[in-house]
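Dear colleagues,

As part of the handover before I leave the project, I'm documenting each prediction I ran so the next person doesn't have to rerun anything. This entry is a single chain, and its sequence is reproduced below.
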Amino acid sequence: MSDISIAGDPLAVPHLLPPVPRHPVTVAEFSGLARAVAADRERWEPLVDYDATTRWYHLLDRGPGHELWLLSWLPGQGSGLHDHGASSGVLTVLRGRLTERSLGLGGERRRSLGAGAQRVLPPGHVHEVVNDSLEPAVSLHLYSPGLTRMTPYGPVPAAASGSAGPGAPSGVRAGAGTGG
């Protein structure tokens, strides 16, 4: 009998391999990930910046099957009416208050979203997000799969006519150090 026979198959060593990292796959898990990031203020708060001409954004994280974007909104800034293509989304308000206007079969609906509020957005969900308060706001946007397309509807603000880079939310300016 050889040493290999005693030790077993040297190629069958699953106990020696690191476990495959688990990543979110359900809406509840993505929502939980967004809430965990929202609670970790030290992770996102130092990165927040504001731009008087357009929304500011920063790609906070990209993982298997998702992207996390940090956005800031000064009073009066909005996204314009749009969808996120084939991506699902989770919108979490981190600071301030945002108003979401969505369109569906039942007509137009408006929701006021304060800090801690979260919205789950299915693929093709048509909406607009606006800071119609008098204070700045910050939000976290999780997209799964990662955002590759935003379809604008109706009038689009002048700032949204240019591209902020591949995969970037339309009508926003990249923050310093984001690489795009």
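The mean pLDDT is 82. Residues 27-39 form the longest helix (13 residues).

All the best with the project,
I.
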